[in-house]
């Protein structure tokens, strides 16, 4: 940790590497390589998909994908020991029965 950056292991999946909380100046310095252009994050997204870590509505369309179908339980996004959250009953039933009726 420095005054303008905090790095930590990605909590979703350690193989994704480190994540960081940065100031805007530090972000430009680290990701823009001094070119003034935005960083190309395509390699990050390719690696994220290889690791099967979904991110946002592009990977998890609303009302189409269920949390367990996207491995969100394995990534720590779903808790079976606390509640309440939207879809908790369906998610728990899916886990314990092993199947989803659509």
What's this, in brief?
The protein has helices spanning 24-31, 42-50, 56-59, 88-97, and strands at 5-9, 18-22. 30% of the residues lie in helices and 10% in strands. It is elongated and about 50 Å long.
Main attributes of the structure:
two-stranded antiparallel sheet; single chain; alpha+beta; elongated
Count of DSSP E strands?
2
Largest sheet, in brief, is:
2 strands, antiparallel
Mean pLDDT: 78
Q: What oligomeric state is this? A: single chain
Going by helix content, strand content and strand pairing, the class is alpha+beta
Strand arrangement within the widest β-sheet reads: 1-2
How would you describe the overall organization of this protein?
This protein has helices at residues 24-31, 42-50, 56-59, 88-97; strands at 5-9, 18-22. It contains 4 helices and 2 strands; from the N terminus they run ββαααα. The protein is of the alpha+beta class and 102 residues long. The chain is elongated, with a radius of gyration of 18 Å. Strands 1-2 form a two-stranded antiparallel sheet. Helices cover 30% and strands 10% of the residues.
